[in-house]
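quick one, two chains, predict together pls
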Amino acid sequence: MATVQVSEAEKVYILHGIRDDLRVDGRGCEDYRHMEIETDVVSNTDGSAKVTLGDTAVLVGVKADIGKPRPKVPNEGYVEFFVDCSANATPEFEGRGGEELGTELSNTLYKVFNNKHSVDLKSLCISAGEHCWVLYVDVLLLQCDGNLYDAISVAIKAALFNTKIPRVHISADEEGGKEIELSDDPYDCVRLNVENVPCIVTLCKVGHRHVVDATLQEKACSVASLIISVTHKGTITCTRKVGGGSLDPESIFEMTEAGKRVGKALHAPLMKLLQQEESLGKARQKVGFLG
Amino acid sequence: MGNVVQRQTRGALRFQLFRKMAGLELLSDQGYRLDGRKATELRKFQARMGVFAQADGSAYLEQGNTKALAVVYGPHEVRGSRSRIRHDQAVINCQYSMATFSTAERKRRPHGDRKSTEMSLHLKQTFEAAVMTQLYPRSQIDIYVKILQSDGGNYSVCVNAATLAVIDAGIPMRDYVCACTVGFVDETPLADLCYAEEGGGVSSLALALLPRGGQIALLQMDARLHQDHLEALIEAAMTACKGVSKVLDQVVRQHLQEASVPSAE
């Protein structure tokens, strides 16, 4: 992760500000920075989204491919995550430098989505035991300015919302085997239900209080953070504590409650925005990185 | 030798079906290509400089459906091995990588494979010819290019995007570096190839040019071409590159104009 050097005086300043619920850029402790979301930015994919949260920029592409289902669950498809920390973000990620962070991020994503409700895996099945849809979710990190987990989870939710999986027809061929035909019409597709896809909230403990959406400077002042993934109903799918410092159980409980509150409040405006963008249809001007 | 049955992915299947159905030829009798362009026409250019605030220089470039993002860090102190330090000039370090979702078939490794390493070396060679490295001895300039969507002409789009990024970083160069991929079909050179044309058995040549002096920074071709056609092909590539340089110049001037207009108070 890109790091900044923070002097002692700056640390004290940030700590005192957070104690009084006033951060360096004027936000409250539970406010997010300016977030911009755009879907359908890469046309080679089945679904894509670009999210900018402050200076953090993340691009997610979802590709659906036909594969063999896992032996233990023959009537379900599955989702594969891959996080690429590109050298664009910081020169330290050049070559294999970004692999460590990328692996950590993708492992956390697997844990977050490792439950029956986030993505309806049964709808990804084509024929039990033989064919299923595999969703390859590829996350590309373009700029790091703190709070990667939140930006990535919002981008994944938006990209899955945007994903269009083509309809398949299974027919029997001459030898009795199954033949899969993809529909030729590019608009004949199945959409995913992303209601239950969780959003990740990272809470950093700075002094005696916790902050949501910490910048790099605030992260440098914090001892430890708690990562919580929350669904729209307020259910938690995964909790992780990261960072070198230790947290006492009281603060973990407090941070969990705050995380649930913040996470739950994030879903409704996000879905509304995605549906609004979708309703613009063909008239929408695609901006991508050009705007 | 056993029969190896390859499972073709949806992307490749769809593309083959499309070609077979339409009976497409790379250059029609009226002189139109697959996407409706004429033989010497370039694809649609859209570019923006200064895309990322954290990097020293950045640029985003779209040429047709190929999208590339270039980021420059530097000049800064040489990282890693001190043996790379050159006492009289800056070291240029390039990395070319493709997003895993950039191609029709999902790429497993974004970089580190042979093709990416080769491209990185080509980019390094190209920019060493253009950047005035003797102004920054004992330092390093990093150029990172990422292909977000690949539709042919990857190398050329990378070079053009990287030129804009280096200019955005304020690093002095001798001239714009413009690149173009050209191919030879039916005795006609085609400028700025797209993916369908590159794969359609066309002899393609990639050229990076410093337009003002007409100096070639990199010339690469790995296909069969008759010697008599080579000069015509290089001429066509140079003309296309000069066209690209005009567009890049326009982009840079517009960016400077936008940056220098004082914001309304």
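Residues 1-8 of chain B have pLDDT under 50 and may be disordered.
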